[in-house]
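Exercise 7 asks you to align residues with C-alpha cells for two separate proteins.
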Amino acid sequence: MLRTGAQHLESLRDGRVVYIGSERVKDVTTHPAFSGAAQTVADLFDLKADPSRSDLWFEEGGERYSMYYLRPKTRDDLRKRTECHRAIAELTLGMFGRSPDHVPSYVTGMTAHPEVFDENRKGFGQNLLNYYDYLRKNDLYATYAVLPPQAMRNPELFQRENRTVPSLRVVREDDDGVVISGMKMLATGAVLANEIWIGNILPLAKEQVAESITCSIPVNVPGLSLWSRRPIATAVSDPREAPLSWRYDETDSMVLCEEVKVPWERVFIHRDAQLARDIYVRTPGHSFSNHQAGVRFWSKVTFLTGLASRITQATGADKIPAVMDTLGRFAAMEAIVGSMVLGQIENFEDWAGGEFKGYNRRGVYGTANWCYENYPVMIDAVRELCGGGVYQMPADVSVLTDPALKETFETYWYTPQMSAADRMKLFRLAWDMTGSEFASRHLTYEKCYLGAHFLVRNLSYREAPWDMFHKLVDGVLAKDQ
C-alpha cells in the first residue's frame, strides 16, 4: 500500500512525545517548528502515491511498493532505485538528508545477507526480513539513531559502577523481549517519522555488550521521548524571507528511552559488540543508504549551480570573464558528482553469490569524501557571488505591503535585469542557503553526516584494493633488479 500525504500526516498524530526545551509538542503537523517540514514529507508521499509516477514504485504480488524497497537483482534495478532517489531529492532540493528513502534503503540492503544476523542468534535474520516486509507493506517512514552520546567516548564512564550510564543499553531481558533505557543520537527526521532503527554504526568496546542492541521501535512507543534541537522554522514569519528554512528543516533529535519494551521479533542483534557494527560492513545496507546520500547531494549541487547563475544574472555580472569562470567551475562540479553517482551503478557489486546487486562501495565512499571536501568550497563561492547584495535588502517583506514604502522600494532597488521584489526573493533564498541558521546547519551536516573526516576516509581506506596498488609499484621495482 502506498500511503498518501494526508495518511502520513494523520499517522504523526499518534501520541508521540516530543520536547522543544520544556515545551511538550501536542501535534507536530501543526506546530510552527515542524509543520512546514511535515507538509514537505506529505508532498513526498503524494508524489510516490501518484499512479502515473511508475518511476517511484514497483509491483510485486499485485501490490505497489515504494521503489526504494526494491531488492536489486540487475543493474537496471539499481538504476530504478537511483531514479527514485533523484526524484525525491529534487522535490526537497537535496535538503532532506533523512528523507523517507534513506533508512529503508539501509534495511533493504541488509536483506541481501540476512545470514549475518543469524550468526548472533538463529531467527534474527528472519526478524530482519519480516521487518523489511512490514516497512514496505505499510509504506512507513523510518529513521535511525545509531550513535552513542558523546560522553560515552570516555571508556571509564561505562565501566563505573553505581552510576547511570547515558548510552542506550539493554537493562533487562524477559521471555517476550528486552527492555532498553538510555540515550541515542542523532535521530534526524524522527519527529516526522513512524519508526526508529536503534543501532551502532561505530565500533563498540568488547565490554559494551549491553549497548550492542540493534532493534526497531515505533516513535510513539511508551517510554520514548524525542528532545529536539532548537527549531529553525519558528524564527520565520513569511516563507519569502526564508524559503528553505520554512519548508526543509527536517529537525534533529536526541532519542531518550526509559524502560522501553522491545519484543524479540523487533530485535536484530543482542549482546554482540563486534557484530553490532559488522552488519553495516558485511551487508550492502550502508552503501545503499549512502548511495541515496550521494544522489541527494547531487540534487543540492544542481540547485547551487542554478542559484549561483541566477545571482550573477540579477547583479549583471554574469558576462564578466572571471564570473563565467566561477560558473563554469560550478557546472563542472555538478557534472563530476553526477558522474560519480552514476558510476556506482555501472561498477556494481555482486551479493549473495550474485543473486543481488549493490552499488560500488569505493564509489559510494569516494563520493562522500568529495562532498565533504567540496560543499564548503561551493557555499563560499556563492557567498562571494552575492557580495553585499544579501545585506542591501530591507529587514523583511513588510515593505511590500505598505504602498508608500513599496513604491520607494521598487524605485531604488530594481536593476535592469530584475524587479526589486524578485531581487529580494532571490537574495533571501541565497542567504537562506549560505548565511542563515539553516545554512549553518547544512554546512555542519554535510561535513558530519557520515562522521568526522578521518572516519569518512577510513571507509575508502577499508575498501581500497591495496594489493592491486602495491602490485603496480612492485612490478616497476622488479624490472630494475
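Second protein for Exercise 7:
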Amino acid sequence: MKRKRYSRKFQRKAAERMWTCESIARLAEELGVTPRCLYKWRKKLDLAESGEELARPCTHEASFRKQAQQ
C-alpha cells in the first residue's frame, strides 16, 4: 500500500492547530492522519525553526545498501 504524502504547508497548518485543539486524537481523525504523525510534524517544524532541520534520508542510498547486503 502506498503512503500518502502531505505538503509542508498542510503539515505546518496541522501542527499549528495542535496548540489550540482540545483533542489531538480528534484533530488527527478530522485530518485523516494518525496522532503520531501530527507529533512528528510538530517536532520537525520545531527543529526547522531552531535551525536544525531534519535531513531526509536518501532513498536511493538506502535501496543500494539493501541490495548490496542481499
